[in-house]
């Protein structure tokens, strides 16, 4: 990915792409598997957005390298795709962990 340096326009563009991707991934995760309550919906959405913002950059770079398209994408496109993927996957991992905890974490 290109060096962003001190160009405020590039930094704002990358953060906007990262935020848009995080919100899109979190929204798709809510639509794909409907939540049982408002509390679960809020928790899943917040988790998705947070993970998308934090892990969007590394996930985007990893995906671009894996698919062999890293030279064809701009920094904003890489961030958008990475944030959406990280946000979408966040709930699936946490959902699996919560089901395991429900199953094996009960009182004896």
The secondary-structure element order is HHH
> Mean pLDDT, nearest integer?
86
Overall outline: elongated
Give the tally of β-strands.
Answer: 0
Number of helical regions: 3
Largest sheet: none
List the domain count as a whole number.
1
Strand content: under 5%
Given as residue ranges, the uncertain stretches (5+ residues, pLDDT < 50) are: none
Based on the model shown, name its key terms.
single chain; 108 residues; mainly alpha; 3 helices
Structure description:
This protein is mostly helical. The chain has one domain. The chain has three helices and no strands. The protein is elongated, with a radius of gyration of 16 Å. The N and C termini lie far apart (52 Å).
Topology overview:
Elements: H1 8-32, H2 38-67, H3 75-104
Quick rundown:
This protein has 108 residues and is mostly helical. The chain is built from 3 helices and no strands. It has one domain (8-104).
């Amino acid at each position: 990915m290109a060096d962003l340096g001190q160009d405020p326009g590039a930094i704002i563009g990358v953060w906007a792409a990262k935020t848009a991707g995080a919100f899109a991934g979190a929204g798709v995760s809510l639509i794909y598997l409907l939540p049982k309550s408002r509390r679960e919906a809020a928790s899943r959405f917040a988790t998705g957005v947070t993970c998308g913002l934090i892990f969007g950059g590394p996930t985007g770079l990893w995906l671009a390298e894996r698919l062999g398209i890293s030279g064809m994408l701009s920094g904003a496109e890489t961030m958008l795709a990475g944030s959406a993927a990280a946000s979408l996957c966040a709930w699936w991992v946490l959902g699996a962990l919560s089901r395991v905890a429900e199953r094996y974490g009960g009182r004896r």
